[in-house]
Amino acid sequence: MDLLHRLFRKKHTLTLKVTSPNGFHLRPVAKMVNRIREYDAVITFNAHGKVAKGMQLNEILSLGLNKDDWFTLTITAKDPQTIATELERYFNDLMNADEAMVDNSARARGENPYTSRILEATILSDSIACAPLYPYREELREADEHRPFGEALALALDALALESADTADRLRSEIAAVHRELLSEIASKLSAQTQMAFDQAIEEAKATLANTANASKIADYEDIRQRVLAHMGYRLEPVYPDTPFILLADDLLPSQVAPLTTSKAAGVILRRTSPAAHSAILLRNTRLPALICEGTIEADEAIVDGALGIIVPDPSEDDKALALKRSKEYRECAEAAFLHRHEEALTRSNRTIRILANIADLTSAKEAKEMGAEGVGLCRSEFIFTDHEPSLEEQTEAYGALFDLFDDFTIRTLDVGGDKGLSYIKLPHETNPFLGIRGIRLMWTHREIIAAQLEAILRAARNRPIKIMFPMIATTDEFLEAKELAQEIAARKNIAISNIRFGIMLELPSVIFALEEFDKIVDFYSIGTNDLTQYLFGIERTHPTLSVPVDAPILMNALAYIRAHAKKPLSICGELAGYADAVPQLIELGYDTLSISPALIPGIKEKIRNV
Ligand code: PEP
Ligand code: MG
């Protein structure tokens, strides 16, 4: 039967031309392959003297079809002519759609202007630099207090045991367990209880690993050595050179970002982070070019091209000159944008896009003002809670100082939990903290903290039109409960609140399916794409190896749906709103209020003027 079936098959060839400036790249190839799978046919691609099977994505990609290249489809089927006609139309539609998506930026064109070997990387921050690579290094500094080796060793083992039992950060706890194992093994073999014997044992352990498949574990031994030394009374501090450098690190703690700006760092390459991690958000605001690249970079110097998402290890002299030129042009564009930062952002078709700022304290609020923000779309209010529990007066004063700066101000209530903790409140141990007591859910465990904050906000508002935004709202009941708490406080403390608007961070997928109900009760929404992405894809925003592109098509579909259905004022305050490449698409979807990091405001306004 099968043989008979095949006997009736005919062959037809069709020649097609790649017309998109992006070439025949991954997305259209994937769509074409899916389409081909629908047919009962054998289809091959022929180009540059090579043949690729029509259902093999990799084979087709390896043909390397660029703009203006021709290729032939050979179709063997019962009715190849009809399939050819359909596929020809489908392919041309794909090319046209892809061409329409072409943005002016070189990255969107998939352009690589460098001649040396390049590494592709994920963009965290988009300027350009070239400098020697400098692997992150910490040095031990002596503190005033010292401990004998034996005591420090016991303390290090205890601390590792504690860390390995902490389920709040699973990766860290697993590493701590491994390190504890390594340390107790070393400790059991010590010839004497001295630091010298310990150092010797560590060096021996490292030597046995050198040149083996496990050479990467050498760093683990160094890590446990430094731990013990830290307990002996030495502090670990990052050491930076005093000439320009590109920092190469696994990841940075949020607290390590600010000191970088006063160092000679010209750029940053991180191996393990994601664009939505809080340290990445801070890094973006420094304007240092920053990229994520998982692989090892063995080179003395490198170009970090944050505009294109390209790293050029050991670049040629020509490429260095090119990077310098690009960096100069980038700075000139940034300076031109800076001159117009206080002007509104008007698209070519005369649509006004409001640009608000995401701020995190009084300093960033002032910076936002200086950078041309038209208001604050997201005030992350955690700043006042970080090291102690603030009093009502302290909070009222701090919020008042912020509200004085802008006529349009959205303050988000405390959003801790997940990757943000507070030392003085005890959250329950949770296996999945991002799915636990986070954001407004604190209202159920620490009601007094949220109540005090609401009271301070209401007092500081003093008849000003302030917007209060609740984070991590999943259901309408939660929003009503939070709003009622504010109303109750206002009634009890005799504070008029007709000036206050109440809204939510739209960051949990459940809200998307209840927009009609939410529309009846909220005054506004602000979409937190960082968390929305995390919860849509089920991938922790801080996960070291898993990540989702900031403008993932599924997220864009969700944004299209929200824009089409939500009736109340809507803005975006997640990191996506500050991605220049995504802005034209957001505008096209109908978004007209974006809240972004202060440093990005001039550039994004300029981008909008060209949309
Ligand atoms: C978000 O989730 O997108 C957001 C803006 O809030 P945060 O990054 O502070 O969670
Ligand atoms: Mg969030």
Provide a compact summary of the structure.
The protein is α/β, with parallel strands linked by helices.
Cofactors and ligands? phosphoenolpyruvate, magnesium ion
Overall helicity? 40-55%
Uncertain ranges: 101-109
- Number of contiguous helices: 22
Shape: globular
The CATH class assignment of the largest domain is Alpha Beta
The CATH homologous superfamily of the largest domain corresponds to Phosphoenolpyruvate-binding domains
Compile the SSE list and pairings.
Elements: H1 2-7, E1 10-17, H2 26-37, E2 42-47, E3 50-53, H3 57-61, E4 70-77, H4 80-100, E5 119-120, E6 122-125, E7 128-135, E8 138-142, H5 149-164, H6 170-188, H7 195-209, H8 218-232, E9 234-238, E10 245-249, H9 254-261, E11 265-270, H10 278-286, E12 290-292, E13 301-305, E14 310-313, H11 317-339, E15 345-346, E16 352-359, H12 362-370, E17 376-380, H13 392-403, E18 409-412, H14 442-445, H15 447-461, E19 466-470, H16 476-492, E20 501-506, H17 509-512, H18 515-519, E21 524-527, H19 529-537, H20 553-565, E22 570-572, H21 583-589, E23 593-596, H22 601-609
Parallel strand pairs: 7-10, 10-11, 11-12, 16-17, 16-23, 17-18, 18-19, 19-20, 20-21, 21-22
Antiparallel strand pairs: 1-4, 2-3, 2-4, 5-14, 6-12, 7-13, 8-9, 13-14, 15-16
Helix pairs in contact: 2-4, 5-6, 5-8, 6-8, 7-8, 9-10, 11-22, 13-15, 15-16
Bound molecules: phosphoenolpyruvate and magnesium ion.
